[in-house]
User: What shape does this take?
Amino acid sequence: MKKRIGISYTRTLFENYWNWFTPADLGNDVELMELSFEKNNTGDIYQCDGFILTGGVDVHPSFYKGKADYNNSPDAHQAERDVFEAKIYNYSQLHKLPVLGICRGMQLINVLQGGKLIQDLDNGNERHKKEESDKEHPIIAEKDSLLYTIAGSIRGHINSAHHQAIDPNGIGSNLKVNAYDDDDERIIEGLEFANKTNKGFMLCVQWHPERIKEKEHNPFSEKLKKQFLTAIKETNMKKIVIINPATEEIIAEVNEDTRESLHSKLISLRVAQPAWHEIALADRVKALNSFAALLEKNIEQLAAVLTAEVGKPLQQSRNEINGARARIQWLTDNAAKYLSDEIMSSGDGMEEKISYEPLGVVCNISAWNYPYLVGVNVFVPALLAGNTVMYKPSEYSTLTGLQIERLLKEAGMPEDVFQVAIGGKETGETLLELPFDGYFFTGSYKTGKYIYEKVAPKMVPCQCELGGKDPLYVADDIKDIKAVAAGTADGAFYNNGQSCCAVERIYVHEKVYDEYVSEFVKEVKSWKIGLPTEVGVYIGPLSRKDQLSVLEKQVTDAAYKGATVLAGGNKMKTKGYYFEPTVLANVDHNMSVMKDESFGPVIGIMKVKNDEEAIQLMQDTEYGLTASVYSAERKRAENILQQINAGTGYWNCCDRVSAALPWSGRKHSGFGATLSHIGLRAFTRPKGYHLRG
Ligand code: NAD
Assistant: This one.
């Protein structure tokens, strides 16, 4: 695995920083990555093992309460660059990753450590400010400094191109000066941590080692670079390797969070929560509506990322993002109605009211199959209600999780109100140990049960949206068998069957069975299978490689016990995690395919004699998420659905979710609800007020 150096983009001479690292420096084990405030590629910060904060335009004076108007001030500051680079620096400190601050980079670090800058070096400008070329002058390094240890010399000869500088009376906390101008002790030429215990490599220089003349022979350039590279190679971040399931290529390697970084994120969420709750609900609504607008604006780029990491066809990625926008709209439209205080009665000098208080800091451990939809179901109402949120995307949808974070912040969400926890099972385990005020989980029954048990002693709310084995019944009175077959096949195979509410088993009345099955198979065989980025592809790869063998086992088990394979049945022999869309007939409940969640493109279809047999089979499951009935008669369908122990009932439709209705499982499909007014209030604690006066 290569180590990555993130270099912050500057509009002035960026190539000098890039080219400072020669092919010999980098070898086969280090590479460079551009981190650009213009592109706002914050997600890439998480892929780096160390950083160079480069030179360029002055830091915005508002960052250190400086005077806005001063000699030599630039035509325009780049406050967005300051904000972006602050994220880089904070990230480096969270994970103790190496940082080299050059010129402006040093000034920014001083400011971020609470220090100040002076705007002009007054007479010193003669000696320091770049004109046609950099000025050059000697410096004196401090003897007990890291700089001296690295450069191996007290005196150095460096270049200078600045007029803004570190305020000698405003050196940031835990920073110390490691070099001065040899002529003027007031001019600070370098900074480093005063107390280096529990800190990563960090060195700041006011000069430009990347472009100094004869830099290869100047220890204040070459030795600094070499030491920085050594520090990069010594880093040891655990990474999630993200693989495109269609091509099996590695598309990213993202640093996982550590116990320590998660703990610090929790603290910042806790500190930020009261202020977030204090602001008017209308402002929280506004921020989330801006987030929805950004989803719309960036839809192509977001869909491309989603498709690359989970493999769903590009159009289905766009559909998901649009679906998420629609849900946000409903939630924000209804937030005031359901989250405001409710006066229950008043009169005779007594008012009784309910106030919906936020839980505090909530933890959302999420799944990969619809990262936008299942994410939005939780973090949007949680934020609307005034909570701060630790969002753990699945390790299989990490990049999308980072896009969500980027856009929420771009939408105006305060920095510490929403944090992403990066990692898999181990990261999840750590979150369970930390003291959150509520846990909201979406994922498998196995993990849900574990989480519920683990969280129980904390006595905080815990909600689980889990898997399903959702049944669908086709009654004998349906009119258009072809249309029903096509619609229900979509319900089973959309997103490659990787939906919690995908149709997982079908029961068909014997009178219409043959025709339905024939139309169903025709529909399935008409689909285009291929690269998810290709137009018209309906079946792409599965998101997870290990699911291929789960499906293989289910099909083999069914065939062994007498099922007929009417379509598909095998793993595909192409690159990528492809499984043929598979239709099985002559199935029964002794087969795993009719009992255990498939979560893939496999469906069993079973003939039934009447509604009673259908009900008995639909009920024969440990799950209880959704159930569906296709019939010409609403009453007949509702009568059947009332007898099924599931959180959602569908008549003449399936595999759909509405923001206005509760999304809720029963039995092994979980408990609690997201969406609807119930889901909005799920992130609150009611307080009853009895107010006399
Ligand atoms: P999963 O249970 O494997 O993982 C879900 C999340 O839990 C991931 O973020 C994972 O990293 C984390 N996790 C795993 N082990 C953990 C542990 N020991 N402690 C803490 N966290 C842990 O599920 P998945 O494969 O991501 O998702 C697929 C499942 O989710 C399917 O069963 C599907 O039906 C279900 N699902 C349900 C809904 C719903 O709304 N009911 C929606 C989407 C998906």
Summary: The chain is about 35% helix and 20% strand. The chain has three domains: 3-233, 257-466+678-685, 470-657.
